[in-house]
Amino acid sequence: MRLSAYFMPTLKETPAEAEIVSHRLMLRAGMVRQASAGIYSWLPLGFRVLKRIEQIVREEQDRAGCQEVLMPTIQSAELWKKSGRYEDYGKEMLRITDRKDREMLYGPTNEELITDIFASAVSSYKALPKLLYHIQWKFRDEVRPRFGVMRGREFLMKDAYSFDVDFEASKRSYNKFFACYLRTFARMGLKAIPMEAESGPIGGNMSHEFIILASTGESAVYCHKDYVDFDVLARDIDYEGDLEPIVKHWTSLYAATDEKHDAARFETIPADKRVATRGIEVGHIFYFGTKYSKPLGARVSTPAGEQVDVHMGSYGIGVSRLAGAIIEASHDDAGIIWPDSVAPFKVGLINLKAGDAACDKACADIYGKLENARIEVLYDDRDERPGAKFADMDLIGLPWQLIVGPRGLAAGKVELKRRATGERQELSIESALAKVVA
Ligand code: 5CA
């Protein structure tokens, strides 16, 4: 992509309304624009990141044996009346009346709808377990939308649902998502610590939030320091094997959100191992048994011929929130530092003297080679001062910067900069390309 043609409306000034660094950087880098309170449009650069995050989430759900579906954003109030949540959800739910005066709503989550789909199709234990997910926009009329995409009113969520014959089987499904989440966040360069949590309006009695430690996080969290050094599980997982050891390991030490915090238990941790800080919730998993299956009639026959309500869990990931959370975890004074796995482009190619025949030719050549190698490259071919180009490239945080200037070229060299470390190397074009393609 040539930057001269790209729609990336960066801002020079820091927008006054942005309280936290990720919000400021997303606005300044031209990733998103606010449409109305807590509702955002995603511009090309931001949309690329969102798609990257979504794809990692999808691949890891698929790997864990979860099947993708797509349910609508607009739901009928009927099922919510059956589950009892139409009243319970209160003002956070956006209620809509259609032209025939039917009560509809913009889904804040999908337990009712997926349970109804399941109930209409499955009647025997033989079809179990079933794990289904979708990645769809949600609406929650938050009292205080803030921090940009981190607490939006409209936001993209991955929500998965498990259906099992009894508690034991349901716990196995829960464990799959537990392990899958560790892997998913690790692939995005994040260390998300599972913490005991309240289940809130989703319900149930077993629940973990996956929390990234960050001083700008919304909730107070408490955990044992050793979690920070735990292996983040980026390795393969045998989802059909016994996952209990993984879950046991990751729940062996104290970790709790504010609502579940037990000061007395926390005090038993040696003082130098106590971490009391703030965190960003990027995922939340729940086991809630038969809370929805009972009122919505999702029953299956057991091998003994009995009819039982299915045991369910639900498993959410804040896909759009993650774009902000990753920036909170990875930035410096100059801007964003994207982990390779979610970067909108892998390389920023900077032509220091657009219009100079040698620079233009070398850049065109490099650009062509990168495209042929299927490396995503953003080519700054604009007629701008080098300082402005460097600042923009640092701001948008692509992992590699390949800098081409007349002086270097005369000696057959270009400069390669790694955004994360700031390390710069003078290299021949071939070696620079080899490094970036590797
Ligand atoms: N049905 C369950 C699990 S599928 C559910 O809705 N869980 S949740 O309420 O905890 O939301 C799941 C994830 O969505 C959260 O962990 C968080 O990362 C994200 N999320 C929740 N509310 C918002 C919001 N207002 N803005 C952005 N992301 C949000």
3D architecture notes:
- It is a single chain.
- This protein is an alpha+beta fold.
- It has two domains: 21-336, Bira Bifunctional Protein, Domain 2 (BirA Bifunctional Protein, domain 2), CATH 3.30.930; 345-437, Anticodon-binding domain (Rossmann fold), CATH 3.40.50.800.
- It has 14 helices and 23 strands.
- It has helices spanning 21-28, 44-63, 77-83, 85-88, 111-121, 167-187, 244-250, 263-267, 293-296, 319-329, 357-372, 386-396, 406-410, 429-437; strands at residues 32-36, 39-42, 67-68, 74-76, 94-97, 103-106, 130-139, 154-164, 192-196, 206-213, 219-224, 255-257, 274-289, 299-301, 307-309, 311-318, 331-332, 335-336, 347-351, 377-380, 400-404, 413-418, 424-428.
- Strands 3, 7, 8, 9, 10, 11, 12, 13 and 16 form a nine-stranded mixed beta sheet that branches. The chain has a five-stranded mixed beta sheet with strand order 20-19-21-22-23, with helices on both faces. Strands 4-6-5 form a three-stranded antiparallel beta sheet.
- Helix 11 (357-372) links the parallel strand 19 (347-351) and strand 20 (377-380).
- Helix 2 runs antiparallel to helix 6 and helix 2 packs across helix 10 (319-329).
- The longest helix has 21 residues, at 167-187.
- The two termini are 20 Å apart.
- Bound molecules: 5'-O-(N-(L-cysteinyl)-sulfamoyl)adenosine.
- 5'-O-(N-(L-cysteinyl)-sulfamoyl)adenosine binds next to strand 8, strand 13, strand 16 and helix 10.
